[in-house]
Structure formats: structure tokens, C-alpha cells
UniProtKB/TrEMBL annotation:
InterPro entries: Aldolase_TIM, BATS_dom, Elp3/MiaA/NifB-like_rSAM, FeFe-hyd_HydE_rSAM, HydE/PylB-like, rSAM, rSAM_sf, Se/S_carrier-like. Its cofactor is [2Fe-2S] cluster; [4Fe-4S] cluster. SUPFAM superfamilies: Radical SAM enzymes. This is Biotin synthase. CDD domains: Radical_SAM.
Length: 432
């Protein structure tokens, strides 16, 4: 079925357009805007071709500002099987033929990818994902930086070292001035997106978070990603109005039983509802999963990937499970790096135009894993930029590897990729 995408000139016009179309019984799908249309709005509205004329009139009558309405291009990787030139198993060849012809992958297709083994099969998967990455987002690796401003959490998740009942953690909170000053230092490095990350700490009220957002915007004009957990619809709305651009709230797993087993005081449906609220408020919406949770299967992970697709997620964080001291899962083995890399690759092939970080958790298990992730479809690295006096206390998992600008630079160069032009390279030289 033929589709078109609507690109608006602002997030607010996009949200208004989506609302108007839905009110007139036009089925819409919010998807990450293809990179070739620029960055006027990160989200596009996808509609069936037979609704285009009616949609145009509705949007014109309601004064919606449009960049344009374009045919939805199916992403193909023509000739990818010839480039791989490997003797692959039949099931994987059939999946790669779908990728080659721009046919959407099914849950079973994703399971084939995730269940593949052997160097030839894995190399073909990573090569296809890397080609897709190159086609849709290019060779520049986006560099972002996280300020972990509080390790206090009201939740008691079984896998997380910050859990409420973990008495081995030395707790801290950064005050607002410390957070702003750290963001200003990141601005000097050239960082354009700061990630404000914490446990679910109720001390940081709606008003405090809004104050932080507004001060960072005023002092640096940086893009702001919030990663502060579950909040109300009104809070998400007010944070967005204050200037927050992105929000990262990971589902961790879409298997309800596993979710319940690792989240004793969370509700799966409420977590999904929060992601829907973020989408409705026009955030660049981040999500993600943990690979290697107890009881998890390849099919569970495939369902996760399709959930991200259905939710119109813009950024997917994929990391292996890493045990944390003082948690019920501290003796459980860490997640498999190979499965994590296969998940990165499958996510790139299915979701295509999204941000996929080469995560710190990967670097914690395997010092070369960030390079491997960049070569398997990832295109983002997040620096740990928490002030040194707090850094060692933010233990979501144990033995966390440090990822600074120098580490990121080495990974980017080793993967044959490019640093973004906005980074101040003097900071890399100074750290050598």
C-alpha cells in the first residue's frame, strides 16, 4: 500500500496536524522524520495515499505550516547480498532479500537474525545493518553527554544498583547550580545535547526540573534530554513547554511477566502510557531494552523491536544486563555481547532512521564493544559527564566503564567513522 509523509515546520504544528487528521477519521502514524528532509521537525506523520487530498485541504483550512507532503520512500539496500558474498543459511538469505527489496521484516524474520550464529552469518547481519546506517544517517557519530545528577530512587527494581533498598550505595544529589555549571562546561566542549539523568528522586519536583531546564536553555541553548523516570502527563507537558527536547524512558522488556519479575513496584501498562504521553507532547522519544534478563528469549527481543517501531520511537538504547552489587540479581550472569550486537543490527534494519547508542554497558563488559556496536548499526555515543566527586556513586550496575570524550574519539576513529564537526577537538588533545 502506498503511503505519504507530512513534514511540518514545527513540533507544535505537527501535533496539531496529527490531532486534526485523527478527528477527521484519517489514520495516522508518527514516525521519525527521514534525515533528507532536514530537522525542522523530528517527527513525520505517515498517512495512506488515498487520504492525501483530504489531508491537504484539512491542514490548509487549519493554517498548519508545512515543509511539504512527500511520497514515503521504502528504504532498500539493493545489491547487499552481492556485497556480503558469504555462504549463508537459507533463512538468513531470505531475510536479507527482504532488506534488499525494502520489505518490512516480521517478528519471525527478526528472530532469524537474533538466532543466527557463526562468523559468516553474523558478519553478513552486521554488514547489512552498517549499510543501512550509512544510507539513512551517514558516517558522523552523534556525541551527547549525561549528567547523573542524583542516585536517589523511590523505586526498587531488582536489576538496578540505585534501587531504594540498596543500603550499600552512598547517596547524593547535585544542587541546581552544580548542574548548570556542569552543562556550561559541556557547552565549551561543543556538546549540543545534554542528558539529565537520575533515579526517580521526588526531591526534584516539577518546579525544580523546570528551573533546571530554563536555566540550561538560557545559559547554553543546548538541547535537553530528560531521563528521570515516570511522571504525570501534566509534568511531561510542562517540561516540554519549558524547553526539554528529548525524553528517555526505557521499557526494558515488553514481556509482561519478565517486566513484573524485575519491577516489583511498577505497572507495565502505566510505563507504556508514559511513552504515549511523551509522544503526544512532541518529545524526541527515547526507549530501549536490556539484553540478557532472566527468562528472556530471542522472540521477546523481537517483540521489543516491533514495540519501538509501533511507538514511533526516535532513539533506542540497547545494552546488555550487567549485575549490580546489592540487588536480587547481583549473582546473575551478564548479558551476551553478541546477542546485544545482533539486537543493535536488527533494530537498525527494522527501524532504520533512529538514533542507536553504542552503550556504556557494552563498554563495561567488553572494552571494544562500542566499536563493534558502531560497526553493527549504532550511530551515537553518550559521554559520562557527572562531576568526578559523584561519578563513582552512580552505580546502576557494578564496575561501570568510564566513557569520556577521549574514549569516544578512539571508538569513532577505530570504527572508521567521523566525529561531529561541532565537537571542540582541543578538548580531545588536552586529555591525551
Amino acid at each position: 500500500m502506498e503511503h505519504y509523509i507530512i513534514i511540518c515546520n514545527s513540533t507544535q504544528h505537527m501535533l496539531n496536524a496529527d490531532k486534526i487528521l485523527k478527528q477527521n477519521d484519517i489514520k495516522t502514524e508518527l514516525i521519525p522524520a527521514p534525515s533528507e528532509y532536514g530537522s525542522v521537525c523530528s517527527t513525520a506523520i505517515k498517512i495512506n495515499a488515498y487520504n492525501v487530498d483530504v489531508a491537504k485541504k484539512l491542514l490548509k483550512d487549519n493554517s498548519i505550516s508545512l515543509k511539504g507532503i512527500y511520497p514515503y520512500k521504502i528504504r532498500k539496500l539493493e545489491g547487499i547480498i552481492d556485497k556480503i558474498k558469504e555462504d549463508l543459511n537459507d533463512d538468513l538469505i531470505n531475510v536479507l532479500k527482504k532488506v534488499e527489496n525494502g520489505i518490512e521484516l516480521t517478528e519471525d524474520d527478526i528472530v532469524v537474525i537474533l538466532s543466527s550464529s557463526g562468523d559468516k552469518n553474523l558478519n553478513s547481519i552486521f554488514k547489512a545493518a552498517d549499510e543501512m546506517r550509512k544510507a539513512v544517517v551517514g558516517d558522523i557519530v552523534d556525541i551527547r553527554a549525561a549528567i547523573e545528577f542524583s542516585n536517589i530512587c523511590r523505586k526498587n527494581c531488582f536489576y538496578c544498583g540505585l534501587r531504594r533498598d540498596n543500603l550499600s550505595v552512598e547517596r547524593y544529589r547535585m544542587d541546581i547550580d552544580e548542574i548548570i555549571q556542569t552543562a556550561k562546561e559541556l557547552k565549551k566542549m561543543g556538546i549540543r545535547t545534554v542528558i539529565l539523568q537520575s533515579g526517580e528522586d521526588p526531591w526534584y519536583t516539577e518546579n525544580k526540573i523546570i528551573e533546571i531546564i530554563k536555566k540550561i536553555k538560557k545559559e547554553t541553548n543546548m538541547r535537553i534530554t530528560l531521563s528521570i523516570g515516570e511522571r504525570s502527563y501534566e509534568e511531561y507537558k510542562h517540561f516540554r513547554e519549558a524547553g526539554a527536547n528529548n525524553f528517555l524512558l526505557k521499557i526494558e522488556t515488553t514481556n509482561r511477566e519478565i517486566f513484573k519479575n524485575i519491577h516489583p513496584d511498577d505497572d507495565f501498562d502505566y510505563r507504556v502510557k508514559c511513552s504515549e504521553w511523551l509522544r503526544e507532547n512532541g518529545y524526541v522519544n527515547g526507549n530501549g531494552n536490556i539484553i540478557g534478563l532472566p527468562g528472556q528469549t530471542a522472540r521477546d527481543i523481537a517483540k521489543d523491536i516491533l514495540f519501538f517501531k509501533d511507538m514511533g520511537i526516535h532513539m533506542v538504547g540497547i545494552g546488555p544486563f550487567v549485575p549490580a552489587t546489592g540487588t536480587p540479581l547481583e549473582t546473575y550472569p551478564h548479558g551476551d555481547v553478541e546477542m546485544t550486537l545482533k539486537t543493535v543490527a536488527a533494530t537498525r534494519l527494522v527501524l532504520k532512521n533512529v538514533f542507536i547508542p553504542a552503550t556504556t554497558a557494552l563498554a563495561t563488559i567488553d572494552k571494544d564493544a562500542q566499536v563493534k556496536a558502531l560497526m553493527a548499526g549504532a550511530n551515537t555515543i553518550m559521554l559520562i559527564s557527572t562531576p568526578s566527586k559523584y561519578r563513582s556513586r552512580y552505580k546502576i550496575y557494578s564496575n561501570k566503564n568510564m566513557v569520556d570524550l577521549q574514549t569516544a574519539y578512539r571508538a569513532v576513529i577505530k570504527a572508521g567513522r567521523k566525529m561531529p564537526p561541532y565537537i571542540n577537538l582541543e578538548y580531545i588533545k588536552d586529555s591525551e
